[in-house]
Amino acid sequence: MARKFISDFLLELDATFSTNKLGLLLIEFVGIIHHDKSFPAAFSYCISESKIVFKFALDSFLGLCFGDDEVPEPRVTLSDQAEGLMVSLPDELPGAVS
Question: How far apart are CA 63 and CA 84, in angstroms?
Answer without folding.
Answer: 19
